[in-house]
Write a structure and sequence with these properties.
This protein is of the alpha/beta class. Helix content is 32%, strand content 30%. The strands form two sheets. The chain has a ten-stranded mixed sheet with strand order 1-2-3-5-4-6-7-8-9-10, sandwiched between helices. It has a six-stranded antiparallel barrel with strand order 11-12-13-14-15-16. The N terminus is likely disordered.
Length: 404
């Protein structure tokens, strides 16, 4: 019996040491640059009076079981009237993107300011989507090793893109930026931490502490439940994916200029994670949008102009001053149970915030039984209690909602 106990202890110790060694190897992997390659020449695919568009592709340094995912396509938008090397910004999209319209719009804003834009397709998205899946389906899976693999591939793709940029005389290699939205912001954050050639960065609706995001985000409920069934909790997940945690690498960056755009009522990337990112950066510029993760679409053009203005100013050694805030509609989806009308599904538009944290609010609701007004305060992350009013009755109720 004693021998069996000792053997079990030895096996557990070996497993622990193996896990430590694996973690160290993963840390080295995501932080190491990809091996050098010879790149194909780019090709012109469109030309206007304002812009020239090129395409080029190269093999990803990280290989997966899906051949289509292992080819990295990039599109390059350069101001047509450029006469010398120009600064450039690598742009990365959000999780599940069906197109690159947002990145193209930002690219046009950058071009108008004399800056090139490089549109990078992230792993498992768009042209890199394996057959039988939708764009982004395989990007966030409930398995730590797959999360690490996907993020490692993403970072290596960014760094290989910069390797390609280094071969082109059209770019000013001393002024290289990166910008991403949501998932793209997480990739950009790690890239900024490990890649010293990136001098400027803009993170839109991003954050730090990936384990906390996964454990609290309204966007990854199925993935989180699958992890729970496998015995994971936030602390265990944090320990196992430490090699792709932005905070692991941002402490090494005391230079560079950064800009963070956060949504004040974000439930996809919690505000605490955005604040952790802000605290980890060296004197970043910060802009808060008065809405949730998806509400920024209503002020999208304004946000893109601010990102472009940040790069235009900071690339030229001028200080960018962001607006104090940008107001945007706060939209809610959920269900309401009231003494006035019973149970209903509801979509809401916040009309008024009763405190600076947004815990108290007034929302106009559209329900199958007609419009309602809700005045209440959060008692939980998603549940609010308050008063409701219909055309005929006033009552009290509970409103379960997710902020978009």
């Amino acid at each position: 019996m004693k021998a069996r106990t000792q053997l079990k202890a030895v096996v557990m110790l070996f497993a622990l040491l193996a896990g430590v060694c694996l973690t160290l190897a993963q840390e080295a992997q995501v932080a190491q640059p990809p091996p050098p390659i010879t790149f194909a020449d780019w090709k012109v695919v469109d030309r206007t009076a304002d812009q020239i568009e090129y395409i080029v592709s190269f093999p990803s340094a990280y290989t997966t079981p899906y051949p289509e995912n292992d080819i990295v396509p990039i599109r390059i938008l350069i101001p047509a009237d450029t006469t010398g090397p120009v600064p450039a910004v690598i742009l990365m999209h959000y999780w599940g993107a069906q197109d690159l319209k947002v990145e193209r719009s930002l690219g046009a804003e950058l071009n108008r300011r004399g800056i090139a834009a490089i549109l990078l397709t992230l792993p498992y998205h768009l042209a890199r989507t394996p057959k039988g899946f939708d764009s982004g389906d395989l990007a966030v899976r409930p398995e730590p090793q797959l999360l690490i693999a996907n993020m490692t591939q993403s970072i290596w793709d960014v760094r290989r893109t910069i390797d390609w940029m280094a071969t082109r005389p059209e770019f000013d290699h001393a002024r290289t930026g990166v910008s991403g939205t949501s998932l793209g912001a997480l990739v950009a954050t790690i890239a900024f931490g490990v890649e010293q050639r990136i001098t400027h960065a803009a993170f839109v609706l991003g954050g730090a502490d990936i384990a906390h995001i996964i454990w609290n985000s309204s966007r990854v409920v199925k993935q989180r439940e699958a992890l729970r069934k496998k015995g994971y909790y936030e602390g265990r997940l944090r320990a196992e994916i430490s090699s792709i945690e932005p905070l692991t690498y941002l402490k090494n960056r005391q230079d560079g200029r950064a800009f963070v755009i956060g949504a004040k009522y974000d439930t996809v990337v919690p505000g605490s994670s955005t604040n952790e990112l802000i605290a980890a950066l060296h004197d970043p510029k910060v802009l808060w949008v008065e809405t949730g993760h998806y509400g920024g679409i209503f002020v999208q053009r304004r946000l893109l102009r601010e990102v472009a203005s940040f790069f235009a100013a900071e690339f030229n050694a001028k200080e960018y001053i962001p607006p104090k805030r940008i107001n945007a509609p706060t939209l809610r989806l959920g269900a309401i149970l009231t003494t006035a009308s019973g149970f209903d599904l509801a979509a809401g538009l916040d009309l008024l915030r009763l405190d600076r944290h947004g815990d108290g609010f007034v929302s106009f609701l559209v329900t199958p039984r007609g419009p309602q007004l809700f005045i209440g305060r959060k008692i939980d992350s998603r549940i609010s209690m308050g008063f409701t009013a219909t055309k005929k009755r006033v009552g009290v109720g509970l409103f379960w909602s997710t902020v978009l």
